[in-house]
Design brief:
Layout: H1 2-11, H2 18-32, H3 36-52, H4 55-66, E1 80-86, E2 90-91, E3 101-102, H5 106-117, E4 121-127, H6 140-150, E5 158-161, H7 167-181, E6 186-191, H8 195-204, E7 210-214, H9 233-255
Parallel strand pairs: 1-4, 1-6, 4-5, 6-7
Antiparallel strand pairs: 2-3
Helix pairs in contact: 2-3, 4-9, 7-8
């Protein structure tokens, strides 16, 4: 009986979610529409959204960014002057002001701490100001500082870069701190899907580094899990993330940032 309940809870609740309901009502609306062109046009819009909401396209898109950057063990890293961690994992406009709230890319910060505590880096350099339009008073580095201190990182081993607004500025502003401190050996930490753009920007600034990709978003599609076959906002978000990153790479190449 419990197995049947579990099965129904997984299958039936899908039809209560906004995105599946949207597709159901949209296909029903197709039968109401008059005119062949209207039906085809509306169907193509539904199809477009549906395809980008599938696990298979979302996974393929993000995998195309991650495949060139396989995981690296902390043990294999050489001892370095600093580990640079790119921001993008703290909600700067959270409604909860009492504590910093981490987002999906929290592995970036976690792995930087692990690298430091393993004795592979003498300093942690966090780079990230505000990427928000019209709200640049909220600096991610300030919130990261609170987290790092709470995790037991000594204040003197934390360096903050709080002026950058994007990946290119992460690199240019970090380069100033690296030069001022005379750092020679650097470990660069960011999400695997973001590593191509980030590494290109840092290389452009003539900053040598050891790569430590993290926060892998791709997943195995071999399990045939039911959830993989249902259009999901999560898969749509993943597709959007990958498309945004490819667009960013293209634009950065045009601008000469890479």
């Amino acid at each position: 009986m419990e197995s049947i309940f579990f099965l129904l809870s997984k299958v039936l609740t899908v039809f209560l979610y906004p995105l599946p309901l949207f597709f159901i009502f949209s296909f029903l609306f197709l039968f109401v529409l008059r005119g062949f062109r209207q039906k085809v046009g509306f169907f193509l819009l539904i199809f477009f959204l549906g395809v980008f909401s599938t696990s298979f396209l979302a996974n393929a898109l993000v995998r195309s960014l991650e495949k060139s950057y396989p995981p690296v063990t902390i043990e294999s890293l050489p001892k370095s002057d600093a580990v640079i961690v790119l921001g993008g994992m703290i909600q700067t406009i959270s409604s909860v002001k009492e504590r910093p709230e981490l987002t999906d890319s929290a592995d970036r910060l976690l792995d930087a701490v692990r690298i430091y505590k393993a004795g592979k880096a003498k300093k942690i350099l966090f780079t990230g100001g505000s990427g928000l339009l019209f709200a640049n008073q909220y600096r991610e580095a300030d919130l990261a500082n609170r987290i790092l201190l709470d995790l037991g990182i000594p204040k003197e081993d934390i360096l903050l870069e709080r002026e950058s607004r994007n990946t290119y500025e992460n690199a240019t502003e970090s380069a100033k701190i690296i030069t001022a401190n005379g750092f020679k050996d650097i470990i660069l930490v960011t999400s695997a899907f973001h590593f191509r753009r980030a590494s290109g920007c840092f290389a452009k600034q003539r900053i040598g580094f050891y790569a430590f990709p993290t926060d892998y978003r791709s997943f195995s599609t071999d399990s045939n899990a039911f959830d993989l076959w249902v259009p999901s906002p999560g898969f749509l978000e993943l597709s959007t993330l990958a498309v945004k990153e490819w667009v960013g790479i293209f634009v950065y190449e045009l601008k000469g940032y890479l």
